[in-house]
Amino acid sequence: MRFDFRATLADRDFDVALEMEPGQTLAVLGPNGAGKSTLFAIIAGLLRPDSGQAHLGERTLFDMDPSNRAWLAPHERGTALLAQEPLLFPHLSALENVAFGPRSKGSSVSSSRDTARRWLAATDTAALAARRPSELSGGQAQRVAVARALAAGPDLLLLDEPMAALDIHAAPLMRRLLKSVLAQRSAIIITHDVLDALMLADRVMVLEDGHITESGNTREVLNKPRSRFAAGLAGLNLLGGTVCAEGIETSYGLLAGTPEGELAPGDRAAAAFRPSAVSVYLDPPHGSPRNMLRASITEIEPHGDGIRVRAGDLAADITPSALADLGLAPGAEAHFAIKATAVTIYGA
Ligand SMILES: Nc1ncnc2c1ncn2[C@@H]1O[C@H](COP(=O)(O)OP(=O)(O)OP(=O)(O)O)[C@@H](O)[C@H]1O
C-alpha cells in the first residue's frame, strides 16, 4: 500500500517527509537521538505531531491542518510495530498471543487460531504454540512476535531494530525470516546494521537531528554515501571538497581519484575510499604516490584483526606490526597515502 508522511514536532526538532511505493521496504538509519523512534511513534499514533499529514492507501492516518483535522487511533491505522524486545503478553501462550490480533479485529476464536497457526508455521514456531513467553528463548520469542505482528494483517509493518536483542546465532535466522516475510510487503525497518539495510531494504533513509540527511536506493547510498553517517556504516572514508583539474581539494589536501558522473571544476563533491586503501607513514616515502595527506592522529583502536588509525575524518587500517614499527601515538603528525585508483569522486 502506498504511504506518504510529513510531520514536524518542534520540541524534538523533528521535520521529516517521506513517500513509499506499495511493497517497498525502507531502512531508517541514524545515530542515537536522531528521531527514529519519534518517527515510528508518530506513524503508529502514539505521538501527536505539531503539523503534517499521513496517508496509508486510502486511509488518512492523521492530518494536523486545523481546517481538515483527522486523527486515527493506533488500532485503526493498519500499522503493526515490532519492537526490539518481543513484548508478548506473558500470561498467554504463543498461539493465543498470535491469535490476539485477528481476534480483536472481530474474527471468531477458531478462525483466529487457524490464522495464528499459519503464522506460527511460517515463522518456524509451530512446535512452540502452547508455550508461554517465559518458556521461549529470545530468538523464539522474537519469531513469535513477528508472527503476531503479521497475523494482524498490517498494511505497514514497523520494525524497530528487530535483531538488536538477539545473539549471533538467532540474528541470522531472524534476518532470513524477515527477508521472506518482507518481500512484497510495505515495511519500515530501523536498524544500525548495514547488513540489514542491504539484505532487507529497497531504500534507505538517513535521519540525523530530526532531519533526513540522505535517502535513496540502498546499494547506491552505501556505495556512494553523501552523509558522514552512511559513509561510516558502509565502512568508507568520506571527504568533502571542491572539484579541481587534478581531482578534489579537501581540507586535508588534494586527492586524485576516479570521477563518476559529470563533474566540473568548482563543483562540490565527495571522495570515498576504504580505510584499507590508506597507508600511514611518519615521513613521506620516496617516489610517493600522488595522494599524500598530512594529518594529526586522533585515535588508535583495534579493528578486527588489525588496527584502525584515525586522524579526524580520515581512517586507515594497518597491521599490528606496522603500528609497532611506526611507533604511532595520538597527537603525532603522520602522512596518509591513498592510491588514486582506490578513490571515487562524485557530486555531493
Ligand atoms: N519522551 C520524550 N520526551 C521528550 N523528548 C524526547 C522523548 N523521547 C525522545 N525525545 C527526544 O527526541 C529526540 C529524538 O529521539 P528518538 O528517541 O526519536 O531518537 P532515536 O533515533 O530513536 O534514538 P535511539 O537510536 O537512541 O533510539 C531526541 O532529542 C530525544 O532526546
From TrEMBL:
Pfam families reported in the protein's UniProt record: ABC_tran, TOBE
A GO MF term: ATP binding
PROSITE patterns: ABC_TRANSPORTER_1 (PS00211), ABC_TRANSPORTER_2 (PS50893), MOP (PS51866)
InterPro entries associated with the record: AAA+_ATPase, ABC_SmlMolc_Importer, ABC_transporter-like_ATP-bd, ABC_transporter-like_CS, Mo/tungstate-bd_C_term_dom, Mop_domain, P-loop_NTPase, Transp-assoc_OB_typ1
Domain Mop, residue spans: 286-347
Entry keyword annotation includes Methyltransferase: no
Residue stretches making up the ABC transporter domain: 1-234
Organism superkingdom: Bacteria
Signal sequence region: none
Keywords recorded for this protein, A-Z: ATP-binding, Molybdenum, Nucleotide-binding, Transport
PANTHER family the record matches: SPERMIDINE/PUTRESCINE IMPORT ATP-BINDING PROTEIN POTA (PTHR42781), SPERMIDINE_PUTRESCINE IMPORT ATP-BINDING PROTEIN POTA (PTHR42781:SF4)
Protein name: ATP-binding cassette domain-containing protein
